[in-house]
Design a protein that fits this description.
single chain; seven-stranded antiparallel beta sheet; five-stranded antiparallel beta sheet; alpha+beta
C-alpha cells in the first residue's frame, strides 16, 4: 500500500509535467545508505543533520533496487545518485513521511573517512512547497537539471519578498507550476532556466486564476524572467 501511495504521487506529478529519462545510476554502497535518511527533510534545515558517521547507522535496512531507484519499503524512502566525482555525490531523495509530508530533496554530500558530510542542500521541500520533480532530475554536460514545484504565492512573490503570506494560495497541494534550474556541482552555481506553468486550468474567478488561464489558452506555459514580470503585472492590474 505504501509503495502504491508513492507511485500514485509520482504519477500525478509526472502527468502534470511529463517525464524525461535520466542517465544510469552511479552505484553507492547500500551498506551505508541508511545514513542518507538523516538528510531526507528537504527544505527544513532544522530537521537535517550536518554530518553522519557510518557507525551511527545500523545498516540493517532492507533495500530493493528498481531500474532507477534504491528503495527501502519499510521507511518509504527512495534515493539515487545523480553525480559522483571522487568523494562528492549529488543524491536525489524521495521520502513519504508517516504523516502527510512528502519530502523530495537534492543534496551535495562528501563521503570521506567514514563520514557523510552535507556540503549543500541544492533544492527540496514538501510537495508544492519547493519539492522537486524527482523523476525529471538529470545530469548532463557537467550540470544537474531539475524542477522545483511552486504555488501561486511563490510566483507572485518572485520580486517581492515582503508580500503578505495570505495574499495568494500557498498550501502544500496548491502547485501552479515548476521552476527549472541548472546546477553545477563543481562551481556550486545555480542558474534559472524557466518557469513552467501547469497545463491544467485554474478554478475560480480571482485575478491569478484568470491570468493563469489566459496564458494556458494562449499556449504560453514556459516563462522567462520578463514573462514572469508581465504575468505578475497582469494579476496585480486585473
Amino acid at each position: 500500500m505504501k509503495t502504491m501511495k508513492i507511485h500514485t504521487l509520482l504519477l500525478l506529478v509526472l502527468i502534470a509535467f511529463g517525464c524525461s529519462s535520466s542517465e544510469k545510476d552511479i552505484p553507492l554502497s547500500i551498506e551505508h545508505a541508511e545514513c542518507l535518511f538523516s538528510f531526507a527533510f528537504g527544505g527544513y534545515p532544522e530537521r537535517e543533520a550536518d554530518e553522519v558517521n557510518f557507525k551511527d547507522c545500523e545498516g540493517n535496512w532492507k533495500w530493493e533496487q528498481s531500474e532507477r531507484w534504491n528503495i527501502c519499503e519499510a521507511q518509504d524512502f527512495y534515493y539515487r545518485v545523480e553525480f559522483n566525482e571522487v568523494d562528492l555525490y549529488v543524491i536525489n531523495m524521495f521520502y513519504n513521511a508517516s504523516g502527510s509530508g512528502v519530502f523530495t530533496n537534492l543534496i551535495l554530500i562528501e563521503i570521506k573517512d567514514n563520514v557523510f558530510k552535507l556540503v549543500e542542500s541544492i533544492a527540496g521541500g514538501d510537495r508544492c512547497q519547493h519539492g522537486i520533480v524527482s523523476e525529471e532530475v538529470k545530469f548532463k554536460d557537467k550540470n544537474l537539471f531539475y524542477s522545483e514545484l511552486i504555488t501561486p504565492y511563490h510566483l507572485m512573490s518572485w520580486y517581492n519578498t515582503e508580500l503578505p503570506f495570505d495574499a495568494y494560495h500557498d498550501c502544500m497541494v496548491c502547485c501552479i507550476g515548476s521552476v527549472n534550474y541548472k546546477y553545477n556541482p563543481e562551481t556550486r552555481q545555480k542558474e534559472f532556466i524557466s518557469l513552467e506553468l501547469m497545463a491544467d486550468k485554474s478554478e475560480g474567478e480571482d485575478a491569478f486564476s484568470k491570468t493563469h488561464n489566459y496564458y494556458i489558452k494562449q499556449g504560453k506555459r514556459i516563462l522567462n524572467e520578463n514573462d514572469i514580470k508581465n504575468f505578475i503585472y497582469l494579476v496585480e492590474n486585473e
